[in-house]
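User: Good morning. I'm curious how adenosine-5'-triphosphate would be positioned relative to this chain. Could you predict the structure with it bound?
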Amino acid sequence: MTDIPMIRMASVDKHFGELHVLRDIDLEVARGQVVVVLGPSGSGKSTLCRTINRLEPIDSGTIEVDGQALPAEGKGLAALRADVGMVFQSFNLFAHKTILENVTLGPIKVRKSGKDEAEKNGMALLERVGIANQKDKHPAQLSGGQQQRAAIARALAMKPKVMLFDEPTSALDPEMVQEVLDVMTTLAKEGMTMLVVTHEMGFARRAAHRVVFMSDGEIVEDATPDTFFSNPASDRAKDFLGKILTH
Ligand SMILES: Nc1ncnc2c1ncn2[C@@H]1O[C@H](COP(=O)(O)OP(=O)(O)OP(=O)(O)O)[C@@H](O)[C@H]1O
Ligand SMILES: [Mg+2]
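Assistant: Good morning! Here's the predicted structure, ligand included:
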């Protein structure tokens, strides 16, 4: 039972028109594993993330979350989306709702929680990400780092099986990056299954079990962070590391 991968992609292909953005992707992420996805701009990292909760349809292949194939549409898809939390570069909070309402809306509407229970869980999550005292504010009244932590709390409120992060710190001022990475590191240590697209190499080294390197829609390397950073196998990875590590 527990050897079913939490995420399984097999022979996944996707095009945008003529552009072949995902090429024969095979990727399994075990329960509790943290995988960091690296690669140059345009290599398909965001598209990969978005196919996992079907924000983007695929042309062919299979994607399963916790042993269940992605349903095409309808109730099954809504349930699956709830199982796969996603945090984007832009915070995507509901601007006209308070922070607490942002965190309770999904559980009430999709998980059918009662309001009291949703608020109790929501407050516990806001405590956990360190912004309980911001609960009655609206997103625009928070710093970028606080908004991103609220976005993480909102995703966690759905009790997801998997969390996908697509460059969650890229839009933040430098002094706010660490507070978001700290929340993610704690989540990783607690055993959450995570797929993280990031340029934060420190996080990749410390928190990732595996690094997946993409280039031109392909997975070119899949290695431990130690191996990937000290001994990349491909020229494409060497070239990529040369560019980012000299910045
Ligand atoms: N909706 C779309 N329609 C057409 N082409 C798209 C669409 N979304 C992405 N692409 C193209 O698909 C390729 C992969 O894009 P993707 O956003 O997945 O790359 P990425 O690795 O996340 O890049 P970045 O590091 O810049 O975020 C790019 O060439 C991009 O221009
Ligand atoms: Mg991207």
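The pocket of adenosine-5'-triphosphate (ligand 1) is lined by residues 16, 19, 21, 39, 41-47 (CB under 6 Å). The chain is about 40% helix and 25% strand.
Let me know if you'd like a different ligand tried.
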